Amino acid sequence: MFKDVIGDWPTYHRFILCSCDEIYLNKYFPRFYKTFTEHWSLPIHVHVVDPSAQSLERLSALEISHTHCETQGHHWLASAEKLRASNPNYQHDTIEHMRQAMYECYCQAQRFIVMGHNLQAQQHVIVADVDAYALRRPTEREHDRLFNDMAFTTFNRRLMATFCHFHPNRKEQCLTAASLMTTMVMDSRTLGVDQKVLKQVFGSLPYTELTNGEWIRHFDVKTQNDMKEHNQCLIYHEKGTRGKLKTVETTWTDIEKQR
Fold it and tell me: CB within 8 A of 245, min separation 6: which ones?
């Protein structure tokens, strides 16, 4: 399921990549697509995990570049048992909770796995969380800074997976990261695989640090001042469940009208 990707990898030289399951596709992708198309003027490719036939038809009708994969054949409950058994802190969690955690871990890592195995020479790929969205158009300085090299925001000494740029000069490292993520997800002993591997593979290499608070702010939104500071960034993304509760103003109908 990791490398068995259905559909065509895009041939764009520069594009934005996101990945999600069916639930996040319907809840967040319309807003993602509308705002990034408007403010960044770059093609968007979405990789969908376990999509419905309706979603695939909708993406095709809108001529949105997409690939997908199926996980129904994977034994998620066995993975959940292994995760819980190898982590004492999880032993009081339900198997269903751990199954969902493993599935989400896979969904988070899959965009980097797909990219690592398919990245072509001369391709620049912006990877972004599908529940993030673009707030404004980058200036020429910001645009050049992003594409000049690998680029990450950092938070608590971590390279964040929320919004980052992968440079074609790092094609070899991208494949290494994809292989490591695949191994770790299959091993079923840890969560947060994407950020762990990004730090391991790219943390010691030169990369452009995207200023926290200018590009994206990784703090929770708890006050009106937090909201104001979030709204001043290029990209909006709230951490944790608070961000998931914000009203989604864009629907499939909105982007169908946009085409």
Answer: none
pTM of the predicted structure, to 2 decimals: 0.92
Domain containing 133 equals 14-211
Q: Which residues 6+ apart lie within 8 Å of 247 measured at CB?
A: none
Sign of CA dihedral 254, 63, 21, 155: negative
pLDDT tens digits along 128-148: 999 999 999 999 999 999 999
Round to whole Å and give the CA distance between 127 and 96. Answer: 29
The total number of structural domains that make up the chain = 1
Structure tokens at 108: 């988070």
1 within a domain of the structure (yes/no): no
Give dist(CA 232, CA 126) in Å, integer.
20
User: At a CB cut-off of 8 Å and minimum separation 6, what does 169 contact?
Assistant: 149
Partnered with residue 16 across adjacent β-strands are: 44, 126
Residue 184 within a domain: yes
Q: Does residue 73 lie within any of the structural domains?
A: yes
Q: Which residue has the higher pLDDT, 165 or 249?
A: 165
- pLDDT reading at 243 higher than 60: no
* DSSP string of 167-205, one letter each residue: -GGGHHHHHHHHHHHHHHHHHTS-S-HHHHHHHHHHTTS
What distance in Å separates the CA atoms of residue 5 and residue 48, rounded to the nearest whole number? 10
Strand partners, 49: 21, 69
Examine residue 225 and state whether it is found in any structural domain, yes or no.
no
